[in-house]
Amino acid sequence: MLSLVKTGQRGQMVVLTPVQKQRQAKRLAEAVPTLAAAYSQALGRWVGDPVLRLVGVPFITECYRSPERQNELYAQGRTKAGLVVTYKRGGQSKHNQGPPTPAMDVAFLLADGSVSWSGLLLSKFARLMKYADARVVWGGDWPSFKDRPHFEVLTDSSGKGGDGHG
Q1: Which of 153, 57, 137 is nearest to 100 (CA)?
Q2: Which intervals hold domain Peptidase M15C (predicted)?
Q3: Among 7, 28, 111, 127, which is 20 to 30 Å from 98 by CA?
Q4: Residues 74, 86 contacting (CB under 8 angstroms)
Q5: Alpha carbons 124 and 130: distance in angstroms, whole number
Q6: Which residues sit opposite 104 in a β-bridge?
Q7: pTM for the predicted model, two decimal places
Q8: Average pLDDT along the chain
């Protein structure tokens, strides 16, 4: 993943490329409106902060996920190489609802072009997400499996996010 680094009066800031911006818009469109709005507000606060924006930029790695993709991730750390990243099989995850989906995963694009899933960065972003909408739940707050990249909004009985109007 490549990024542009712009140098301004306040130092370097990571800026997404046009292709990355398109990908982000597509992923954001997969989210239920309440989650998309909370993410947009939190992102605006992040890049508006003179210190946080120098660290890197949050970006959505996944929103809607097919049950097949969910099963691929479930296999990771079990029958495929890698660490366990989910305890939900296809059809069991909030990512499998929709689209629009009430769940998204977030990571950070750093100035050197690398991707980070830093718990510290994600906890700071989680505060902004929860401030933007009290219905946002962060996977880092879960008592057992800490899914720090994961954000979701509480859904009503229809599976729609938020106040039931979406």
Answers
A1: 153
A2: 91-153
A3: 127
A4: yes
A5: 10
A6: 151
A7: 0.85
A8: 87
CATH architecture group of domain 4-64+99-153? 2-Layer Sandwich (3.30)
Three-state SS string over the chain comes to: CCCEEEEECCEEEEECCHHHHHHHHHHHHCECHHHHHHHHHHHHHHHHCCCHHHHEEEEEEECCCCHHHHHHHHHECCCECCCCCCCCCCCCCHHHCCCCECEEEEEEEECCCCEECCHHHHHHHHHHHHHHCCCEEEHHHCCCCCCCCEEEECECCCCCECCCCC
Enter the tokens of residue 151.
């954000």
Q: Give me the residue spans of the domains in the chain.
A: 4-64+99-153
Tokens of 52: 């946080």
Q: How far apart are CA 46 and CA 51, in angstroms?
A: 9
pLDDT band at 162 (very low <50, low <70, confident <90, very high): very low
